[in-house]
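Hi support team,

I'm filing this because I wasn't sure whether my run with tryptophan finished correctly. The job status page said complete, but I'd like someone to confirm that the output block is well-formed before I use it downstream. Pasting the exact inputs I used:
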Amino acid sequence: MEINNAPQKKRALSFIQSSGMFTLGNYLGAVKNWNNMQEEFECVFGIADLHSITVRQDPATLRKQIYSAAAMLLSTGLDPEKSLIFMQSHVAAHSQLAWILNCYTQFGELSRMTQFKDKSQKHSDNVNAGLFTYPVLMAADILLYKPDLVPVGADQKQHLEIARDIAKRFNGIYGDVFTIPEPYIPPIGAKVMSLQEPEKKMSKSDENENAKILLTDSPDAIMRKFKRAVTDSEARVCVGENKPGINNLIEIYSCITGKTADEITAEFEGKGYGDFKLSVGEAVVEELRPVQEKYNMYISDKAQLEKIYKEGAEKAQYVARKTLSKVMKKVGYVL
Ligand code: TRP
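And here is everything the job wrote out:
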């Protein structure tokens, strides 16, 4: 890919956390869109492995999860020929810029982050400084690559907002150093909810296995989980206010087949939820089949995977160091 000083296309950047196998929610809500964005934009995609240790991780598990995240990103269609794909921990500039930006970020504004409040309650035995300054590292991830657009889900909106605030503050003092990124809402994409508590987002950390579809789930497991998905007692496949379970299944089916909600209602007129759940399950199985085949190939060929992520790291280092040097000069460091 061409990361140069005068890009023809707009640049888009996003990262995904490496803690745990991706879910159908990560896929339909984020990664599948990244895949489509590769033609339209010059894309930068990272695995946020530094962010993972804000929660205590077992080393062997962490390593496995990072490999698996890299293999999965490539399997869902990200193409290292078109996009810059790398691991955050391989580019030292992220930690370096994060330190500098820490000194341009206020305690008060970090205290207002809802994710910090939630996570510090959930992990009250380990409210570490990394958990608190997490948004600053995320700001560094973004600002180093000067993207125009950052696709993020609703839960990361506040973090993107603080990244913009930090960038504006820094530019206000030192001149035009950072590009101010805009949030990007992809034209297609689903917000996938838990299959067991459909008012909640599908989460990879959910302890209830039936609540989430992992991208590595076997066809049997996928079918079983959809059959058990929580619905309602109306027994009509249509979008409705008090039908979060069915709304979610319609959203998933629509995102995969490209059919509208009305078309789906027509397709299942006179049929029960049982039939609908089978169809959604089968659509997901077929959608994931080629992804899983590629994943198995990458995960059993570490040499190929390593070649790709090392090349990605080198290209990313080049771009990131340029921005970091400019920042350091502006601040007054001797280079
Ligand atoms: N915090 C994001 C998440 O949990 C991941 C992330 C890290 C990110 N750095 C980023 C997303 C930079 C967008 C841009 O989903």
